Amino acid sequence: MTPDFIIGFARGAVETTLLLALPMLGLGMIVGLIISIFQSVTQIQEMTLTFVPKIIAVMMGLMMFGPWMLTKLMNYTEQIFTSFPQYIG
Fold first, then answer.
1. pLDDT at 9
2. Cα-Cα end-to-end distance for the chain
3. Running along the chain, 89 residues long, what does each successive block of 10 average in pLDDT?
């Protein structure tokens, strides 16, 4: 194993992790921003108001993006297993 191989392997893992986390983080951020704007306009300063909409948005996002995320994860895992002989030798 060369340093270039290890760096490429780690890069692929980080890219896959970020790609899978991006939809959920993006939805949480967008819903949080909308709730913050709503709180600013109505001057409601309730800290717990943001949690329930964010949880609902992330759960809906998991239902929408779940199959895509699972496919990406399975493809990455299959790629690791098919190139396993390269890791050993």
1. 87
2. 8
3. 85 95 95 92 84 93 96 94 81
Long-range contacts (CB closer than 8 Å, 24 or more residues apart) made by 57-62: 57/27, 57/28, 57/30, 57/31, 58/24, 58/27, 58/28, 60/27, 61/23, 61/24, 61/27, 62/24
For 19, residues 6+ apart whose C-beta sits below 8 A from its C-beta are: 72
Q: Is the C-alpha dihedral spanning 29, 31, 34, 37 positive or negative?
A: negative
Task: Assess contact for 54 and 38: CB atoms under 8 A.
Answer: no
Q: Measured between alpha carbons, how far is 42 from 19 in angstroms, rounded to an integer?
A: 35
Structure tokens given for 52: 């329930």
Q: What is the pTM for the complete model shown? A: 0.78
